[in-house]
UniProtKB/TrEMBL annotation:
GO terms for molecular function: sugar-phosphatase activity. Belongs to the HAD-like hydrolase superfamily. CbbY/CbbZ/Gph/YieH family. The keyword Nuclease does not apply. The keyword Hydrolase applies. This is Beta-phosphoglucomutase family hydrolase. It comes from Cellvibrio polysaccharolyticus. Keywords: Hydrolase. SUPFAM superfamilies: HAD-like. The lineage of its organism: Bacteria, Pseudomonadati, Pseudomonadota, Gammaproteobacteria, Cellvibrionales. InterPro entries: B-phosphoglucomutase_hydrolase, HAD-like_sf, HAD-like_SPP, HAD-SF_hydro_IA, HAD_sf, PGP-like_dom2.
Length: 199
């Protein structure tokens, strides 16, 4: 079905991995601990934004003065995810596409998560060994919605970005693919994959 593309690039959370509950509980715990408002619709709109960026946007939107440093809040959320990911994550139906194209096309994960976290989650889901490249937000200067993540995936695979295909679930991720000049599939609309959090 995707034979015309030179390489495949997957977002992770909400696309290749069902991790909705994990992130909902992690964000609820973090925002509650640091006395920040929980606006479910706004949190959904920030899907794909790295943790520090999300915290900064939440504080800006609600004009909050932080009761702790950005690093402390980031570490709390990331530690919560690390300690609980094994309870919640599982592969989505896109795992079948990954298995189908393993060894036939280079494949990458380009995610707003940090690389270490992404590697652990993909390993728990049995998907890490299928990936040629894993690019987390810590590997690029400007994470999604900037194009850097997907362009770096293509670069590391030695692929022409215009000949790749991106699988995404989040509006900001789809915008990142558009800015990178890479065709993209909205997995919500095309593949009926959905694991939104903060519903």
């Amino acid at each position: 079905m995707y034979d015309q593309y030179e390489a495949l690039i997957f977002d992770m959370d909400g696309t290749l991995v069902d991790s909705g509950q994990l992130h909902e509980f992690a964000w609820t715990a973090t925002l509650t601990r640091y006395e920040l408002p929980i606006d479910r619709a706004y949190m959904r709109s920030l899907a794909g934004v790295p943790t520090k960026g999300t915290l900064e946007l939440v504080m800006q939107r609600f004009d909050c003065l932080p009761c702790a440093s950005l690093d402390e809040m980031n570490d709390f959320k990331e530690n919560w995810v690390h300690e609980n990911m094994h309870r919640f994550v599982r592969p989505t139906a896109l795992a079948e596409v990954v298995k189908q194209y393993h060894g036939k096309r280079p494949m990458a994960v380009g995610t707003g998560a940090y690389t270490e976290e992404a590697t652990r989650i993909l390993t728990l889901c049995g998907l890490a060994s299928y990936m040629d490249v894993i690019v987390g937000a810590d590997q690029v200067k400007n994470p999604k919605p900037a194009p850097d993540t997907f362009l770096y995936c293509a670069q590391r695979m030695g692929a022409n970005p215009a000949r790749c295909i991106v699988f995404e679930d989040a509006p900001l991720g789809l915008l990142a693919a558009e800015r990178a000049g890479i065709p993209a599939i909205d997995v919500h609309q095309v593949l009926n994959i959905s694991n939104d959090y903060f519903l």
